[in-house]
Model the fold of this input.
Amino acid sequence: MRVKLDAVLQSVNQVLLGKEPQVRLALTCLLARGHLLIEDLPGMGKTTLSQALARVLGLSFQRIQFTSDLLPGDILGTSVFDKDTGQFVFHPGPIFAELLLADEINRATPKSQSALLEAMEEGQVTIEGATRPLPEPFFVIATQNPVSQGGTFALPESQLDRFMMRLSLGYPGKAAEKALLLGDSRRNLLPTLQPLLDHRELAQIQAQIPQVRVSDALVDYVLRLVEATRTQAQFAWGLSPRASLALLAAARAWAYLDGRDYVIPEDVQAVLPSVVSHRLREQADPAGHGGGSLVQWLLREVSAL
Amino acid sequence: MSALQTIPRISLSWLLVAQVLVIIPHLGHLPPWIIVLWLGCAAWRIQIYRMRAGYPNAWAKAGLIVAVVVGVLLSRGSLIGLDAGVVVLIAAFVLKLLEMRSRRDALVLIFLGFFAVVTSYLFNDSMLAALFSLLPVTALLAALIGLQQSALAAQPLATLRLAGGLLLQAVPLMLLLFVFFPRMGPLWSLPLPKDRATSGLAESMTPADIAELSRSPALAFRASFEGATPPRSELYWRALTLEHFDGRRWSQAGAAQLERQPSWEKRGASLSYSIIMQPNSQRWLFALDVAETGLEGTRQLSDFRLQRRQPVERVLLYEAVSWPESLRQMQLDAASLRRNLQLPAEGEPRSRAWGAELARQYPEAEQLVAALLSHFNREPYAYTLRPPALGPNNVDDFLFETRSGFCAHYAGAMVFVLRAAGIPARVVAGYQGGEFNPSGNYVQVRQFDAHAWVEYWQPGRGWRSVDPTFQIAPERIELGLEEALAAEQSFLEDSPLSPLRYRQLGWLNQLRLSWDNLNYGWQRWVLGYQSAQQLKVLQRLLGRIDSRSLILALVGGGGLLLGLLALWLFKPWRRETDRQQRVFRAFEQLLARHGLRRQPGEGARDFAQRAARALPHQRAAIMAFAQAFEAQRYAGEAGSPRQLRQQLRALRRALPWRLSRIEGEH
Done:
């Protein structure tokens, strides 16, 4: 099974050049049943990454371009009256896909944003009194432009907390960019990707990940990390239990990807920046953006053993 | 010069501070040129540190050494002996500053400093001096610690705190060694500094000598009694007897005859007391009549004084028992009789005539003595420390003309008249009275308590003591010299600042007595804790004394103390309870010795990989340990810490024996 996962990584890396760590983290997030927030400038390959992942994992893919006039119904779907049957027939929205790319989520109004985010949390949507389950697996990759850009509604902290990870792709390296410029268009490459996993296999893997062993000593380390965010003065607020659960789940998936059936502190450290940085704010700047330096502090100062 | 060899700034600063503190107690007995030399060397050394001056070359060094040798020879007359030796030591201590290039030199200087601190005890063993010596020792320790720090450390106070902590930790061990370590006789005898001997009674006496002593408030000895202290009028501390009169001066008769066994008969109640005597460079001890002591090397001579084989050169503690009502020397041989009837060949005609007349008038010796005493009492004799000058017939002049003087005059004149009347008599010199310290329950006797009184002998009754001074100035005996001289205001007139002059100020007097009590305790329990005293204490503590129990107490006590100290320092109750963790700490310590320190946030695997990169030859052993640790700690694999320890041992074997620093790793 891990061989297949390695092939998945390899395939995606062929399309998205020079972003191995981010691809690995994105896959980790997916395997841990988390949702992913990619924050970057336009044109950095966010969509490419989502589509590539969807293809190689054999998932149905939908994309919603968030705009300021997007309504919740545009996401969830609406009931339309069928003249022939004389009944309202539900037309599912794009959310009923296995991998949903919510593009530029921060351009939509908070009302539309929350329609998606509630669905992400609960795994089901309730429309006009009827509760409809979302497909399994259900994986959201939301992208957003950096908050500083105009015409955006920044996600509030409570919404950010629902994403397991926040990634930033960043500029490609020189060699990667050269290969990109010399090679085929990414859009043309995507259809060449073959699905490497089917639903059954993906579900199997996702079921195995909670079995990855977490020892007492490791939980103690996670607790020390969480404790530090709650007691140290430089943190505006501490991590929630949801965050510590997400951290552990992500660390398990990372260890699984690494071919181990147990988690070591290095796994936690590998996923820590992407799992907690969007959940932390500096005391000096509580309205600021992310806690990159706080995460570095955690990695450096909290005893790993 | 490599970085390891330079002397850190902290160490140098502490060394200079320590040098000041080491030399201060020596200032009193060092020739002034040493101070000049010292200041010069210190300034030079500071300039060297500031790179404004170079180290002296061989010629300069040789010149300095020759100058010091000449200086010592000129100021002390010799290069050997204690006085000169200390000067040489201090000079070396000072000059070594200029030669201090490497750590080794600084070490030499520090140990020289410790030695110089010890030598200062030879000159002053008072409590204050001992407490002061803690300061230079602390500073020297701080310098020693600073020497081990890197050149970049810049916290002199932290160094001092550590030095103080070390000293404090040494205190229990010091106390143990003080109590239990056997006091061995000296392997060699050290001639003590000569200028230390204070004034005191001498082997011969003129009235002027006693008058000289009366001006000195220096301490002669302290005595504490078991049970109630007798009234001061009964405290006649005998030192020596003066039997020979040459017309001006009373002196001891030939010493050879004195060493016969005295004959006496114990009578009445006994008094037990202990005496702490200040050094006086004489061989006699002070005691009430008639005393026995268990002090080693001490005998009772035929005139009932206690005499030691060695002069008293340091504070001496001894215990004695006295029988004041004893009968002394019922029989007197012809030679003794002759000695105690001796008078100068000529002179003092009136006194001789008066003696002969008294002898006719009073055939009984008791009556004669009583008549003589009542004569002193009745006639207008005066007690003064400023007697008028006496002519060549000084006894005559005193008895019949000036009629004023003090104890030495009265005792000398009375013995003269008794001898002229045919009664064997002699002068006894010693101290009378003393000041009772109620808080310490002891009597302190000072030089101004020096006194002379009279003994006469009668067949069948032995020697009897009488004190003519009591007839003239009873307050001298009952209240002390100060009261006797109240009218004259001559008490300690040469020492206007002596606290003894201000006894009427209650608080000052209290302070003085308490301070004296402290010093008494120091002398009694610290300086006086010598072989006999130690034996007594140990007997009380251990029951019996043999080398085995002593060694057991010393080693056992030392082990116990060090164990407690180690417990306190290592705090095993705070020890890592997690056994895997403990092995990992050992792993960390092992690698730390090779310059690899784990960052707190560094996991076992990351750390091991970094270590493996730094120590590629030990890669296999390092990774094996890390994997075993990881497997046990995180993968839940069965395994005991012992296996980890085996891995660690393998790594230890694989690592080079020497401590090595890895470049670029920190």
About this structure: Residues 659-666 of chain B have pLDDT under 50 and may be disordered. Residues 156-180 of chain B form the longest helix (25 residues). The interface with chain A takes residues 578, 580-581, 584, 599-606, 630, 633-636 of chain B (CB under 8 Å). The radius of gyration of chain B is 36 Å.
